[in-house]
């Protein structure tokens, strides 16, 4: 039996098919529309079809939606809308930290549809749990949006498993995705139930910041003696053996877990978007995978 971990290239979000590497547009605010178009085209060229954004990305003087707006313009320029699975979110609402009242979520989704120049969102996520919103009210908003055809699938981000389950209990359709932070330097989803509930409920777990937001990339060192430095050293050894970058190994490590649906990369470099699929070439053994986890924990597995 092979000790190489299989890394499938595609996954599903409810009935929708998606590449296992997804592209996040948090850092896209400030790009031009034609730059946005080129980045999405670079992603599509290598099978990255799930595109993630949020109204809060780029929030500032222009208010909500700068990252969504430039993405919408870029997709319109290239006629790309029908080729992507469009993911956006609602519920982060300065000056309130969070606001998932039904009316707020519905209006937020309507505004996203306008900025993204589309009539439906393929996957709509509650960005962070609003502790003051009853699960029943959030469910009511998602149901209203889905019945109106404004969203196809629904999910959550940064929810605990209890919060996810409580929301699911108020819905008469299944949630299809969860989006937690997960990388070789942020391994909580392995033990807090995130990767388990994704398998139990058939959710596409979308790992955000799989490269630690830029800390697990070639040239990164980390503080001497830190978990990050230890992880980087193990990633480098695996990368050297596979003739790929440590960023590709970091992605492969996330994608090799059976509870993970996709890894959500955020580079603004078209070359790095295209090269990200080298993650699928990494021959990672079970021993390699656990060596990365042991480096992150600073101790051997018990
Ligand atoms: N749901 C949530 O609460 C939440 C929170 C955060 C993020 N997200 C989603 O996750 C997406 C990805 O997050 P992220 O951008 O933090 O992901 P990431 O892929 O872990 O990190 C991206 C960063 O790494 C850098 N990088 C990547 N490859 C590199 C390389 N080879 N050499 C040097 N630098 C490199 C990028 O810089 P360059 O651009 O220069 O390559 C960029 O600054 C976001 O866009 C968003 O959609 C969701």
From TrEMBL:
Residues 20-292 form the NADP-dependent oxidoreductase domain. SUPFAM superfamilies: NAD(P)-linked oxidoreductase. GO terms for cellular component: cytosol. Pfam families: Aldo_ket_red. It comes from the Bacteria. Signal peptide: none annotated. PANTHER family: NADH-SPECIFIC METHYLGLYOXAL REDUCTASE-RELATED, OXIDOREDUCTASE YDHF. This is Putative oxidoreductase. It comes from Shimia abyssi. The lineage of its organism: Bacteria, Pseudomonadati, Pseudomonadota, Alphaproteobacteria, Rhodobacterales.
């Amino acid at each position: 039996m092979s000790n190489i971990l299989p890394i499938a290239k595609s996954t599903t979000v409810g009935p929708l098919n998606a590449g296992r590497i997804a592209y996040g547009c948090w850092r896209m605010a400030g790009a031009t529309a034609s730059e946005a178009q080129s980045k999405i085209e670079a992603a599509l060229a290598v099978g990255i079809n799930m595109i993630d954004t949020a109204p809060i990305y780029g929030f500032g003087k222009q208010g909500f939606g700068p990252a969504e707006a430039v993405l919408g313009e870029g997709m319109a320029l290239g006629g790309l809308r029908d080729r992507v699975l469009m993911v956006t979110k609602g519920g982060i609402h300065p000056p309130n930290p969070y606001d998932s009242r039904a009316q707020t979520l519905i209006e937020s989704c309507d505004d996203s549809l306008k900025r993204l120049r589309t009539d439906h969102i393929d996957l709509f996520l509650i960005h962070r749990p609003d502790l003051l919103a009853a699960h029943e009210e959030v469910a009511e908003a998602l149901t209203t949006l889905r019945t109106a055809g404004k969203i196809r699938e629904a999910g959550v981000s940064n929810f605990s498993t209890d919060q996810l389950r409580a929301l699911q209990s108020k819905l008469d359709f299944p949630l299809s995705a969860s989006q937690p932070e997960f990388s070789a330097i942020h391994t909580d989803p392995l033990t807090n139930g995130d990767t388990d509930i994704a398998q139990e409920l058939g959710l596409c777990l979308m790992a955000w910041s799989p490269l630690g937001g830029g800390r697990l990339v070639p040239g990164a060192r980390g503080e001497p003696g830190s978990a990050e430095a230890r992880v980087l050293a193990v990633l480098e050894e695996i990368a050297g053996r596979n003739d790929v970058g440590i960023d590709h190994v970091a992605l492969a490590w996330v994608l090799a877990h059976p509870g993970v649906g996709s890894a959500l990369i955020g580079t603004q470099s078209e070359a790095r978007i295209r090269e990200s699929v080298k993650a699928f070439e990494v021959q990672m053994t079970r021993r390699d995978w656990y060596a990365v986890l042991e480096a992150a924990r600073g101790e051997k597995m018990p």
